[in-house]
């Protein structure tokens, strides 16, 4: 029996929760997993020890306290709910009442309150980035395709992404030939890429003549213990289908769902992946 208390993991959608489970599976640190109903991918459902509704933070607290959890990581996406109609327990109501009192109700504002709630209950918040540190640095060019012809679009996309992040709108933007084609909001990156793919070839790139860059960066004011930008093979595929030339991201501010698969997919499609340092931003 492990002498270490279990790490609490509150899981949303995507592969990142499972990556943490796999990372810790062979270690001395046990994990107590709490899945958000309707969010956890079906293939990972058997890895969950308990389930909560999106507005059931008190239930999550009670379950984790019963298991002796002291540290919590919250990872994975969720579909943005209507806060006014969300089914809430006392913990969820604590967050939502405070969120609805704010003029700005973006993801960062709400998620910061979620962290405040769990910290008020005596838990220490652990960043997913601490548990998923890449084996190799993410700075610079990770792929075979040259990004030099697209530096201006890279810089402009990062600038736009940081501006919308400061307004708590989203974490991503797409620029092609100096034109802003899209900014990420509640629909998420995949839906934004699909929308760009429906634009005229006159303004976006094509698979034969790629143009445009997706930038993914954290919001300047966000608490990096939660909701860091995530990139996965589906992101690379979406960028490829939209005719983009590449993806740029903050090297220390992104979580890859499957880095090797992303690099391999990008190389097959002729896209670049480029990690910026904080000095580059």
Q: Sheet with the most strands?
A: 6 strands, mixed
Got a strand count?
13
Q: Give the C-level CATH assignment of the largest domain.
A: Alpha Beta
- Radius of gyration (Å): 19 Å
End-to-end distance = 46 Å
Instruction: Determine the CATH topology of the largest domain.
Output: Cytidine Deaminase, domain 2
Helix coverage percent of residues?
Answer: 25-40%
Q: What are the key terms here?
A:
281 residues; alpha/beta; Rossmann fold; Cytidine Deaminase, domain 2; 2 domains; six-stranded mixed sheet; 9 helices; 13 strands
Question: What's the layout of helices and strands?
Answer:
Blueprint (H helix, E strand, L loop, with lengths): L6 E5 L4 H10 L5 E6 L13 E3 L4 H10 L4 E5 L14 H11 L6 H14 L3 E2 L2 H4 L8 E2 L9 H16 L5 E5 L2 E5 L5 H9 L15 E4 L13 E2 L1 H9 L4 E5 L4 E2 L2 H11 L2 E5 L5
Parallel strand pairs: 1-2, 1-4, 2-3, 4-5, 9-11, 10-12, 11-13
Antiparallel strand pairs: 6-13, 7-8, 7-9
Helix pairs in contact: 3-4, 7-8, 8-9
Characterize the structure shown.
The longest helix has 16 residues, at 151-166. The chain has nine helices and 13 strands. The protein has two domains: 7-131, Rossmann fold (3-Layer(aba) Sandwich); 140-276, Cytidine Deaminase, domain 2 (3-Layer(aba) Sandwich), CATH 3.40.140. The radius of gyration is 19 Å and the shape is globular. The chain has helices at 16-25, 57-66, 90-100, 107-120, 128-131, 151-166, 189-197, 233-241, 259-269, and strands spanning 7-11, 31-36, 50-52, 71-75, 124-125, 140-141, 172-176, 179-183, 213-216, 230-231, 246-250, 255-256, 272-276. It is α/β, with parallel strands linked by helices and 281 residues long. The mean pLDDT is 92. Helix 1 (16-25) links the parallel strand 1 (7-11) and strand 2 (31-36). 33% of the residues lie in helices and 18% in strands. The strands form three sheets. Strands 6-13-11-9-7-8 form a six-stranded mixed β-sheet, sandwiched between helices.
């Amino acid at each position: 029996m492990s002498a270490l208390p279990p790490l609490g993991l509150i899981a949303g959608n995507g592969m990142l929760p499972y990556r943490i489970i796999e990372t810790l599976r062979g270690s001395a640190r046990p994990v107590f997993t709490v899945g958000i109903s309707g969010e956890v991918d079906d293939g990972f459902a058997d890895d969950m020890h308990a389930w909560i509704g999106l507005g059931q933070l008190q239930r999550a607290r009670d379950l984790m306290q019963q298991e002796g959890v002291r540290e919590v990581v919250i990872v994975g996406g969720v579909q943005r709910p209507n806060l006014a109609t969300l089914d809430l327990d006392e913990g969820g109501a604590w967050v939502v009442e405070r969120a609805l009192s704010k003029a700005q109700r973006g993801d960062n504002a709400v998620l910061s309150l979620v962290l405040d709630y769990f910290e008020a209950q005596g838990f220490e918040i652990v960043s997913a980035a601490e548990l998923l540190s890449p084996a190799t640095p993410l700075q610079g060019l990770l792929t075979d395709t040259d990004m030099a012809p697209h530096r201006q679009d890279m810089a402009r996309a990062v600038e736009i992404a940081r501006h919308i992040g400061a307004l708590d709108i989203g974490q991503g933007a797409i620029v092609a030939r100096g034109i802003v084609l899209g900014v990420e909001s509640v629909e998420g990156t995949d839906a934004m890429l699909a929308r760009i793919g429906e634009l005229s070839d006159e303004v976006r790139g094509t698979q034969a003549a790629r143009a445009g860059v997706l930038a993914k960066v954290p919001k300047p004011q966000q608490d990096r213990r939660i909701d860091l930008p995530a990139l996965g093979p589906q992101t690379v595929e979406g960028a490829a289908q939209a005719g983009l030339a590449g993806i740029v991201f903050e090297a220390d501010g992104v979580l890859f769902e499957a880095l090797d698969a992303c690099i391999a997919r990008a190389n097959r499609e002729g896209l670049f992946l480029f990690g910026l340092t904080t000095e580059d931003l």
